[in-house]
Amino acid sequence: MAKRLSAEIKEKITLLYDNGNGLDISKIAQQIGVSYQAIYSLTRIKQRTNPETGKLFESRNEYNDYLIRQRTNPETGKLFESRNEYKDYHIRQRTNPETGKLFASENEYNDYLIRQRTNPETGGKLFESLTEYNDYHSRQRTNPETGKLFESLTEYDDYHIRQRTNPKTRKLFASRTEYNDYHERQRTSRPENQELSDLIKKRLKELGRNQSWLAEEIEVTKQRVSQYVQGKSFPKEDVLQKLYSSLEVPYKTLEDFLDDRNTE
Length: 264
Fold this sequence. Notes:
By secondary structure, the chain is mainly alpha-helical. It is built from 14 helices and eight strands. The protein has four domains: 62 residues, no CATH class; 40 residues, no CATH class; 68 residues, no CATH class; 63 residues, 434 Repressor (Amino-terminal Domain) (Orthogonal Bundle). The N and C termini lie far apart (49 Å). The mean pLDDT is 85.
């Protein structure tokens, strides 16, 4: 992982570059001992205009996000909407050495990478899952409320949830239950989730099928299909395509759902 530049180094680079009137980037890199890319990110990129805003790019991340959204997603034929969508697509083009098949998701990819790392608590054995890895690392951190190390991933997550503000009450969430209840209500109130829920229930009834059948058809768990039916979740584009094919209805993207809703 690249080392983060200190405020002092950043200031020195800015002074040496002098808005393009000072030293060349390669010379600054040699003089300070920082990579060319890091200096470029701090200087040249910030002099470029973001066509979407008409303002200068504020960071390399903003610049990279813009470039990614100019690329076409081969699965949809449309431009990538975000860095996450772009990353997820490219991960699913890689082969899982354990199965010989392409990774099905970013979660599967991350889980595989984690299981190549050693757990210091087990005598040099590899982590068995992403959950075990996260649990180990959460227990190396101090709980500000007790001054002691967190005892588990659950305790760690509970603490961080209670540092977040409930937009409805404008107070901190009192518990994980309150946090989960709030987000579940937000998901089920989304128009695209509700429309998909209604469609699935309607078509399953017309076809004389059930949720278990649909889960097998689109290669997801029964629990996941149940979440779609309850309006708690919305599938990714590749799963959405399978779902529409299985239900024998014309394919619609998330964008189509929102467009339909706006014209009602």
